[in-house]
Amino acid sequence: MATIKAVRGTRDLLPPETALWNHVEATARAVFARYGFGEIRTPVFEVTELFARGVGEETDIVSKEMYTWEDRGRTESDKGQSLTLRPENTAGVVRAYIEHKMAETGMLEKLFYIGPQFRRERPQRGRYRQFWQIGAEVLGPPWSGSDSALRDAEVLEMLATLLNELGVKGWRLALNSVGSAEDRAKYSAALREALQPVKHKMCEDNQRRAETNPLRVLDSKEPGDQEIINALPKISEFWSEDSRTHFDQVKAALDACGVAYVEEPRLVRGLDYYTRTTFEFTVPDGSGLGTQNALLGGGRYDGLSEMLGGPKAPGIGFAIGEDRLILTLQAQAAAAEPKKLDAFIAPMGVSQNAGALKLAQDLRRAGLTVEVGDGSFRLKKSFEAADKLARKMVIFGEDEASSGILTVKDFAAGEQTKVPCAELVAMLKG
Ligand code: HAM
What we know:
This protein is α+β, with helices and mostly antiparallel strands. It has 15 helices and 16 strands. Helices cover 37% and strands 21% of the residues.
């Protein structure tokens, strides 16, 4: 009988790896608590319209990647509702914020979540159809200070702290502002105009977006369209004085806290709700993510609550791709494995122990890291111990002692060579 496997793009998380997941989540919870965040848990599915309105019809997420189904009605005449597995959690959090009238407290809400999200993307390393996000949102009525640049900088500083506490190495914060809703409208119009004469050269999706939502053209990964995309106007040319000031304040606060960032004028992010600050943290190549090097992303969404029929409640938030964070930590831990010793000296027989120790003394004095086996070890045991501990093994037997020619095994190269004693230090360093 054919066995049943996990669905493509989903995976089982097993021990011992789950211990790392728990460690990451516990660290995130501890850091979030220090910044005054409380946990929110929203349903895994919502009405489809929430994402269509919140994330945007023309985004890749909504137009291509959602798991949507018509829910069965209770009776024949009761038409079923369209429901969707959440592709992200910000829209759900803001829906809950509105539904529970959280704005009425007049306070700033600081909420975090940890949970699975679903997108029907092409699976590859670091990209799954069920993946996990650790995210947080800060929102409130304008008089709670929710649209202050201080909040943006606080969220970014918290992220830097969390990544550092987890030991993520080499992260890079890319920062931009997509301007206010008005700036974006002007920018959209300018993009539409700039795309008019060239759009016929672009892929079908981009031709459509050039009309319906030109900002989304900027997210396109279509290789043939990049030249046109690179030549398009930049959002910074359309910032109002207020948007520019807000962005300057975010940067000044980050500078004050010593959080490094790189300005990236084309970082618009693939969701429609963003206004003003947008950001992404990436990790360097070789951190286990392949081409999916965005560890997390986020930004401000000053109009989202109103787009969902709620009160004015500016906000900012982020979501970390937890799967990607785990892959990064695993790859970086492997790379940081204790460096192997330069040499393991294997005396051939107990009578060679003293000479082997003398050789180790010489090598250590020359600055090499060395371990000595024992003459009572069988050759196989020496090989095994040496392979675990050191890059190379030096065989020290009666012949070697008398001739001054040593046999050196290089484990990485899988080679065994004869080396005169005088050349040994240079050879072991190489
Ligand atoms: P996003 O950029 O769509 O933003 O996703 C955030 C992070 O989730 C990405 O940077 C990535 O690490 C991870 N991620 C996305 N798709 C996948 C996937 N298929 N497999 C594995 N990891 C994935 C949002 O979701 C916004 N809600 C973030 C936000 C919160 N903005 C404001 N508040």
